[in-house]
């Protein structure tokens, strides 16, 4: 698949001012027209590639996101590895709780892995984001989620 050229920032900002969308087509969209975040469950592993097409309009770094249904008191371990870039992983609170970052973690310097372990404060749909510590990083990654039994 050939990568689409990205519009210059001035064109993107002008389009936003006019109310136009400059997003790549998504497989599914919410009622508001936003790309739907795919779901992931504990015990699941996903493989992906961060490319230039994954860069947010107002952020220089590519990112991939998943939605995970969590329960208050549940302890999650989220692990991201990549041979191509230094991974950074974060977990955001449910939108009903403000959507702020609950926890984040980067790996040691160089291409390797980042492991985040945290206890969820409440029931809800949390957002996992896998991204790069260095905004120029691109490449393949593996993300896994598990419930930590105590």
Commentary on this structure:
The protein has 150 residues and is mostly beta strands. The protein has a single domain (36-147), classed as Jelly Rolls (Sandwich), CATH 2.60.120.380. The chain has one helix at residues 9-17; strands at residues 45-50, 63-70, 75-81, 87-92, 101-106, 113-119, 124-132, 139-147. A hairpin with an 8-residue loop joins β4 (87-92) and β5. The protein is globular and about 35 Å long. Residues 1-30 have low confidence and may be disordered.
Topology:
Layout: H1 9-17, E1 45-50, E2 63-70, E3 75-81, E4 87-92, E5 101-106, E6 113-119, E7 124-132, E8 139-147
Antiparallel strand pairs: 1-8, 2-7, 3-6, 3-8, 4-5, 4-7
List keywords for this structure.
single chain, 150 residues, mainly beta, Jelly Rolls, four-stranded antiparallel sheet, 8 strands, 39% strand
Topology as H/E string? HEEEEEEEE
Beta percentage is 35-45%
Give the number of DSSP strands.
8
Rg, Cα atoms, Å: 16 Å
Structural class, judged by helices and strands? Answer: mainly beta
Shape: globular
CATH class: Mainly Beta
State the strand order across the main sheet: 1-8-3-6
Helix-residue proportion: under 10%
Question: How would you concisely characterize the structure shown here?
Answer:
The protein is mainly β and about 150 residues long. It is about 5% helix and about 40% strand.
